[in-house]
Amino acid sequence: MLLISPDEAARRTYDACVIGSGASGSVAAAVLAERGLSVLVVEQGGPIPPGADGEDHEDPDGWAFARRDGRWTRDGYPWTAMALGGGTLFYAGMSYRYQQTDLAPPSSFLGAADYDHWQVGLADLEPHYEWIEYQLAIAGPSRKQVGDYVFPVYHRPSLPLTPPGAALAEGARSLHLTPLPTPVAISGVRDRFGPGCAQTTPCTSFSCPTKAKADVVSRVLAPAEGDVSVVVHTRVVRLVASSPHRVDAVEVLDRENGTRLTLRARRFLLAANAIQSAALLLRSTTRTEPDGIGNRHGLVGRHLAMKNSVYVRGTIPRRLPGYTPLRHRYSSVCVLDFLTGEAFPDGIGGLIHEANPWEPAAEREAARGTLLQVECLVGDRPQAENRVRLSRTRDRDGLPRIVMDYRPHPADLRRLAVLSERAHDILTKAGAVDVREVDTAYELGSAHLHGTLRAGRDPRTSVTDPFGRLHDHDNVWSVDGATFPFAGNPNPTLTIQANAHRIALAID
What we know:
The protein is an alpha/beta fold. It has a single domain (2-49, 80-506), classed as FAD/NAD(P)-binding domain. 21% of the residues lie in helices and 21% in strands. The chain contains eleven helices and 24 strands. It has helices spanning 6-9, 23-34, 100-103, 107-110, 122-136, 163-174, 216-221, 274-283, 362-366, 410-429, 493-506, and strands spanning 2-3, 13-14, 16-19, 39-42, 64-68, 71-76, 145-146, 149-150, 180-181, 228-231, 234-240, 249-254, 259-265, 268-270, 305-306, 308-316, 333-335, 351-354, 370-378, 387-394, 400-405, 433-438, 449-450, 476-478. The strands form six sheets. It has a six-stranded parallel sheet, covered by helices on one side. It has a six-stranded antiparallel sheet with strand order 9-17-18-19-16-22. A four-stranded mixed sheet has the order 2-13-12-11. It is globular, with a radius of gyration of 22 Å.
């Protein structure tokens, strides 16, 4: 991997240009390079030092318009992260595989969003899951099963539970549930990257101080063999197509000096996240595609999905041995017993996992004892009216601001309410008092972004084919979560990475 300037990148034509260096972009770039292609990765952010707070690396001018409690606000969060390595620098490392229902939910669940389907199943993703789990050295509960969910064989054993995690596990077991260690891309032992997890931060929102958390650049992109160049602090303005069905270049803005350049390639891979990739296509208008590249049927940006979520928090009125507020791993234990059930609309429930807080205000609560918190997650059903649009107002780069026009589905809110009740029971059994919900503000954006460029076989109902290629363009692929027709219940990063690996191997 070679860091170069945008000026240097503009002097050659690459076999492939990957837009975004996060979970999917780095995987795709590494695969293409090892197949012998010359690859250019364009990243809007830059390198992040160990132990950095993600909030210090946001762009205050880049927030989007979003709905919140029925009102429009400018607090929308349209990134996973602006950084070399993307959200894998600041995520919690939770690395679940999807189950078949996450890939192909029933028609009753999809409702008006039902269509010809993605037709990608667990068997299709199996070898790609195995590849990324090996690269990241996922630690998890090998071969354990909860209902229909079966964990694979992992390359490292589960990490020990945190003190809050152990209390939550005991509470869950008293309800005859099956709590298990959360599978994570975090090393608990010394390896060539560092000394292993020292639990110095709660993971979420922080780059790992000890490099135990497996960000995708250090684990996948940097070790890749082949011709990989990376430009940072460079924003892609639009795709440039000089003829129908093919893109020849990207126009970029060098944010270090404010100049615009043209970078040329033979193939283009969108890996900027479901919101940013859709916005890029909408900005990329041509004479024959005045509404944006790939948008012949008006589907680019539609079916935006974000996990519906809520925290449930309580306090054990004493300090558990080994408990240090705001220092433990974000998640060490999960409860998958409620992924399905008759209590949920359409029979599809969601996920509960330990979610140690990281905001400074939580430290005051923790002073009263041991703070317990879980996150309840339900994958929201796709709705065509939930979409990414472009505003008439402009940002500091002169580009249209992003509009995230999103409302949760009432049935999904009912699913979340049922899951929250189950979480209340777990915390109460764990000995917590003052158990209550804490808002996650997921409507404003999150790291769980899906839809907008949904994959399928029919161009009238999908934007890309099952391998992520735009129906109307021969050399443009989406490798991020934008192609997912359904958000799925578990954290999506591992599946996004596995799918990017699948697509990159198939690119001709």
